[in-house]
Amino acid sequence: MVKISTQTINGKAFEYALLNEFLERLKAVTIVTVVDNEPYKTAKKCFDGFDENEQNHYKLVASFAVNFLLDIEPRLGNGINKSDVLQLEIVSDKMGQSGDVRDVLAIRSLQKWEIGISAKNNHRAVKHSRLSNDIDFGLKWLDVPCSADYFEEVRPVFDNLAKLRTASKATQKWDTLGNYHDSVYVPVLDAFRKELLRLDNDNVGIIAERLIEYLIGRQDFYKVIKGKNKVEIQAYNLHGTLNLPFENIKPKAKIQKLKLPNRLIEVVYQENSKTTLLVTLNEGWQISFRIHNASSRIEPSLKFDINLVSAPHSLFSNQLFIN
Known about the structure:
Strand content: 15-25%
Structural class: alpha+beta
Helix content: 25-40%
Number of helices: 7
Radius of gyration: 22 Å
Shape: globular
């Protein structure tokens, strides 16, 4: 049995609370079905594991978010006819690996329409991607392979880590290496920085946009972030598929389309840091890449904690405070 982290349990419980709130609110006004798949069963189990007070809090936060989404997405509650069914689904985590960050989907096949929600419980990181001597981040993230030069630079670092791990039968810890920020992190980050700039230089106008799509998602979506006494809703309307009217019913608020970048402006170390790179792109996008060892024991790979530092002013964001 795979042990699920507390953060994952909280996140999945929130996914269930959102889907269930959509169902409760919409079943009186339109025909709704729920896809009874494994991700749904897992999310329900996580939700059911909480006591009644905690469940009620999840429901309350979800109801604030759903009320707001119903106002700005009229197609949720309006079908063309009786065969226009609204299908609610919780999607598999595996989808995130292919650039789809959405957790909950609402689909109307007859209208060829869907919206997705990325449900976050108290955390804002967009991705946790790895680097190693055989991970081609260029190919995986951007559909353009990394150069042989990049692998020549990182291979000695990761090979050395692999030898240490093997020699110690996977027991040696990072803190035995002394100043590993200088000996491990910096050379890897330097190679990553150089390669990202080279990829952008060799593929003009492509890399910046693909980087944002990889990190944020290739489909438009709403990000719903559950806090202690508030819920924040952000609209990532990259392709203009959110906030559409239904016949003559217009959304109650207007959501602008977000502009994707087409240029990397700079990749620099964050001030006084040997672990974090700041990637600045045009159109107001900036991303931080913080590298770290995911385990206390040495392993031949490193993990990025990737966060959106700034987005264009046109990113729609609304905070709803809960008593």
